[in-house]
Amino acid sequence: MHYQMAPAAEAKLVRCTSGAIYDVIIDLRSDSPTFKQYVAATLSGQDHKMLYVPEGFAHGFVTLDDNTEVFYQMTAFYSPQHSRGVRWNDPAFGIEWPVHDPIMLDRDRNYPDFTSDEQVRA
């Protein structure tokens, strides 16, 4: 689950162009009534739906089909020094994933437990 801290916070528009994904966003804005809550949607190359990811939200997905392609549009360039993440299965969020042991980078699998000090300041 990735995001960028201010001043490089970004919004995204995500579309699955082929195959299918289970796409998740988490509200990390501490002043929001939906702080630490998530929204999930299945996107596929057949349904042409898109998911908007506002600034201040973490974003991640899991592919549901082989040969899946995902297309992003972002409001800011990637900034490695502002890049952050939260663990996909952190109990602070309670995300119900359709895959229980996904293949992922060790970096993504090993993010520490979320604390409110990690919140995005968008």
Notes on the protein architecture:
This protein has a single domain (2-111), classed as Jelly Rolls (Sandwich). It is built from one helix and eight strands, in the order ββββββββα. The chain has one helix at residues 106-109; strands at 2-4, 12-18, 20-27, 38-44, 50-53, 57-63, 69-74, 83-85. The strands form three sheets. The chain has a three-stranded antiparallel β-sheet with strand order 5-2-7, with no helix packed on it. A three-stranded antiparallel β-sheet has the order 4-3-6, with no helix packed on it. The longest helix is centred in the C-terminal third of the chain and has 4 residues, at 106-109.
Task: Provide tags for this entry.
Jelly Rolls, 122 residues, mainly beta, single chain, three-stranded antiparallel sheet, globular
> Span from first to last CA?
16 Å
At the first level of CATH, the class is Mainly Beta
Strand order of the largest sheet: 5-2-7
Mean pLDDT: 93
Tell me the radius of gyration: 14 Å
What proportion of the residues is helical, as a percent range?
under 10%
Tally of separate helices: 1
CATH architecture: Sandwich
Structural class: mainly beta
Give the CATH H-level superfamily: Jelly Rolls
Mass-distribution shape: globular
